[in-house]
Write a structure and sequence with these properties.
Rossmann fold, 407 residues, 38% helix, alpha/beta, eight-stranded mixed β-sheet, 2 domains
């Protein structure tokens, strides 16, 4: 097998970076099966707002990361969600059209949303090279932006994006969706459901079976050790509007005096982080850290007594969720508490913890206390249940086999 697959994902990451590594993890498995995979990504890091993988003077840079070729493209930098972020997206689409001819002709091109320019470029390049075109829908865009109030459904930007979305659905030979019920949304656009394939997020279990040890000289390690005798509730991931972190902070405030032995630790970055930190100035049971590389996540999660995630009450979650962090949480074999009840309740299905209604800090506080008061054996059983579930349904190896069937 020497098929060449191109994946266009503006925000693709390698494990030495902070963020999701979906495409690297899947590609690593495909390479083992004999495929050649090239991932085209932005060299300007979305999380740190820095050029990480290339120098400012570079137009692009090729990196072979464990057999998977990454092409890091120079894109226009941006530092907040303003017009420069749009330029950053546009520059990705333009840059890839310029450099594509330098690489081996693809048999299949996967264009991965969120933004439209990566997918449009994938479709255009598939036409140029007479390759198969697959559209991967990581988020239902622009519907998510509309429901979160970022854009108006009747506004010109939403109308343009809805038109782009339908055009891409029609042009794609196959449509990969991450959300389990996204098919209901897409077929309502007049699209044949036989084109739609569900391949959710997952996890490379090797990272958890052979974790990268945290260097004891690192500031983050020394800092966490201050809380080694505490009951540590850890959150990892983005600090944005869709992550609903206010409820966790409010729950922490409610149990501060009742359970001073519980300490909350947040890892990550995002547009809401500074505002969230300002809410905790009078709380001594919450600590914020920056993002950590994906390769360090397993070691970070191993320090937790309980892991936490919040899923706000947005209508978009009627199509389900596929949060990267959830599969990392399950792989870590730790008990999980989820505030929210999306249509696919993974924690409930896996019997890996407890779920409570969204946006209710009082009930969340009670749930945290419930897990804390469990015996160690009960918490270990919840963690073991989660590990079994993710091994069965969400390992990168299992998901890559699903992907290979349509390649």
């Amino acid at each position: 097998m020497d098929k060449c697959v191109w994946i266009l994902n503006h925000y693709a990451k390698t494990p030495d970076m902070a963020g999701g590594t979906r495409h690297f993890d899947l590609s690593q498995e495909l390479v083992k099966k004999g495929y050649k995979v090239i991932i085209f990504a932005s060299g300007f890091d979305h999380t740190s707002k820095k050029y990480i993988k290339l120098l400012f003077k570079d137009r692009y840079k090729i990196e072979n990361y464990r057999g998977v070729r990454f092409v890091w493209l120079k894109t226009i930098p941006y530092y907040s969600n303003n017009w420069r972020r749009i330029l950053n997206m546009v520059s990705y689409g333009i840059r890839i059209l310029k450099v594509a001819k330098k690489f081996e002709k693809p048999d299949v091109i996967i264009g991965s949303s969120v933004h439209p320019f990566a997918v449009l470029a994938a479709w255009w390049l598939a036409k140029r090279y007479k390759a198969r075109f697959i559209f991967e829908v990581r988020d239902l865009w622009p519907q998510t932006a509309v429901e979160m109030g970022v854009i108006r459904a009747t506004g010109i930007s939403a109308k343009i994006l809805y038109a782009w979305e339908k055009f891409m659905y029609k042009k794609a030979e196959k449509i990969i969706v991450l959300l389990p019920y996204a098919e209901n949304y897409i077929k309502n656009k007049g699209i044949n459901p036989k084109k739609i394939i569900w391949i959710p997020n997952g996890v490379d279990l090797e990272r958890f079976d052979n974790p990268e040890s945290l260097d004891s000289s690192l500031k983050i390690f020394r800092s966490i050790m201050k809380y080694k005798d505490k009951f540590k509730v850890i959150y990892t991931g983005a600090h944005g509007i869709p992550n609903g972190l206010d409820i966790i902070i409010e729950a922490a405030a409610l149990i501060k005096d009742e359970a001073p032995e519980i300490h909350f630790i947040f890892f990550g970055e995002g547009t809401e982080k500074e505002r969230l930190k300002s809410k905790t100035l009078k709380l001594n049971n919450i600590t914020f850290y920056g993002s950590v590389p994906k390769s360090s996540i397993s070691s970070i999660l191993s320090l937790a007594d309980c892991l936490i995630v919040s899923v706000p009450n947005f209508n978009i979650y009627n199509y389900g969720i596929s949060l990267n962090k959830l599969f990392d949480y399950l792989a870590s074999a730790k008990p999980i508490i989820m505030a929210g009840n999306p249509k696919n309740n993974i924690i409930k299905d896996a019997k890996a913890g407890i779920t409570i209604e969204s946006e209710n800090p009082e009930i969340l506080a009670e749930g945290i206390l419930e897990i804390q008061k469990m015996s160690e054996e009960e918490r270990e059983q919840l963690g073991a249940n989660g590990r079994v579930y993710v091994e069965k349904y969400h390992s990168s190896k299992t998901l890559a086999e699903k992907l290979e069937k349509i390649l």
